[in-house]
Amino acid sequence: MPKESSKSIPGLKETNKVVFTSFSKKNFYMRAYISAFVLENGNTPISPFMNFDYNLSNLVRKDDIRISNNTLIKKSDELWVFGEISDGVLVEIYLAKKKKLPIRYFTPLNDGLSFRETTENNVRLEDVSSWMWELVQKNESLERWHPRLRFNKEYPLVYTAYSKRNFYWQIHINKFCLLRKAVPLNPFMLFRYFLGDAVRRDSVYAANQNIIRIADELWTFGEISDGVLKEIDYKKSRKGPVKHFELIKSDPFVFRKIPKELIRFEEPNLEGFRELL
Predict the structure, then answer these.
(1) Beta strand pairing status for 115-118 and 18-23?
(2) Cα–Cα distance between 175 and 14 in angstroms, integer?
(3) Domain co-membership, 143 together with 216
(4) How far, CA to CA in Å, does 203 sit from each of 33, 76, 85, 144, 239?
(5) What is the pTM of this model?
(6) Which residue range is the domain that position 243 belongs to?
(7) Helix residue ranges, H only, the chain
(8) For 33-79, how does the pLDDT look when each residue is reduced to its tens digit (9 = 90+)?
(9) Residues 228 and 146 placed together within one structural domain of the fold
(10) Residues 50, 116: contact at Cβ < 8 Å?
């Protein structure tokens, strides 16, 4: 996907590609290192194991996670595969090939923290029959063989904007979105509070702006901070819809939609920017 001209937020820039990272649950422990690797290579990682943890701890239907992941692949520019080909990775490669996305393959090195690029012919299979892998390599139909491929629907992408003070809301916000058949692009999940400073912050800021760009809508949660205000301004500059929600109950978490007039700011000095909402 080519870069698009846009209004830029001071200190931020867009990266070139949105990369869906595909890897087995056996390599779940590598998820942050994989995202850092993609960021260091100047791209925006979309990692299901970062964004949803492990099926969001079963707080939502697994089918909604599957539909969300399928949607994210279709919205990405490339698919990068890390490690062995598991059953789930096979499906993600199949969907990427069907959409004609570029696919790159990487082998984890011995330390598990770095990766070397390899080729499709040199990958190893984890729990996949060789004949199914051959079907994928030949671009033949796999629809009748795999249940995950029966999910043809897509959900809209929603960028979730909220203050770092409410960092602990992250899983509850993702659950809220998924229950409303929307795919959350949650920066505090995808980038795990800047991946423990393992990568340069400007790389994370650029990737953050990139996921705002590809989102169909932006939803705010709680009081508006200066960072959230910039995200709103950027999304509106691209004519993207913005909706606002407040927390009305925390045991369990309950959010409700509110009009702009009821929005509160995190700091009093931000009140002067209300016209940006």
Answers:
(1) unpaired
(2) 28
(3) no
(4) 14, 18, 29, 41, 25
(5) 0.90
(6) 157-276
(7) 31-40, 48-51, 62-75, 87-98, 130-137, 170-179, 187-190, 192-195, 201-214, 226-237
(8) 999 999 999 999 999 999 999 999 999 999 999 999 999 999 999 99
(9) no
(10) no
